[in-house]
Design brief:
Helix content is about 5%, strand content about 55%. It is mainly beta. The relative contact order is 0.18.
């Protein structure tokens, strides 16, 4: 039973110090990703306060940002730079030396910025129900029977680890993505893994614990 619970630690324990490069060390992880705003009226005539049809802002963990603004005439404006933030203010410092200070509000998939509501968009076909096909590694006991992971397109997740004797544990929370990194954030902790997506196969790897899980997407009827 003790060793069987080690798999729970692979997904849910942060007792070991995380590396500085881990996304679990980022102060505002919910900000990471691609955010989009679309004009409520795509056909409305251009005006001083209505110049754009869509805006995309990307935030990376190296504190770099990129913003693309689609104008109503079809042209695109783009800016890059560094950002900084605290609990209420986001500062965008572009590569031309200009700085903009904006009040913001943030949750797992919504960003309010200057009165505009941005939505985080999932960049991969990761959403869906995933069930383990193979779980292996030196921390995985033979008593583990299944890992079930549900990733919703709004960046909420649930994960359940089950044992052959009917034991199970479930955690729910939010997840973030960057490149090949998947971070599950839940009450009491967070877990950083590398992922590889190939059609309907999702492979999760945690080199710190020596674990690999191969999951298959549940096919809808």
């Amino acid at each position: 039973m003790k060793k069987w619970l080690c798999l729970f630690s692979v997904f849910f324990c942060l007792s070991m110090p995380a590396k500085a490069s881990d996304l679990t060390q980022f102060d505002f992880p919910l900000l990471l990703g691609d955010w989009y705003w679309f004009s409520p009226d795509q056909q409305e005539a251009e005006g001083e306060d209505n110049q754009y049809k869509a805006i995309n802002i990307s935030f990376n963990s190296d504190y770099r940002f990129n913003v693309k603004l689609l104008k109503r005439d079809g042209t695109v404006e783009e800016a890059n730079g560094y950002y900084d933030l605290d609990e209420s203010t986001l500062v965008l410092n572009d590569d031309q030396g200009e700085a903009q200070h904006h009040e913001y509000k943030l949750n797992h998939n919504q960003l309010m910025l200057r009165g505009a509501r941005f939505t985080k968009i999932l960049p991969n076909n990761l959403s869906g129900a995933w069930y383990s096909d193979v779980i292996q590694g030196h921390d995985v006991d033979e008593g583990v029977s299944e890992l079930a992971l549900m990733l919703r397109p709004d960046f909420l997740f649930s994960v359940r680890v089950s044992g052959t004797e009917g034991q199970s544990i479930t955690h729910r929370g939010v997840y973030i993505l960057e490149d090949d990194r998947l971070v599950l954030i839940y009450r009491g902790g967070q877990q950083d893994s590398q992922f590889e997506l190939d059609a309907d196969t999702l492979t999760l790897t945690n080199n710190q614990f020596g674990m690999e899980a191969v999951l298959k997407r549940q096919q809808t009827p």
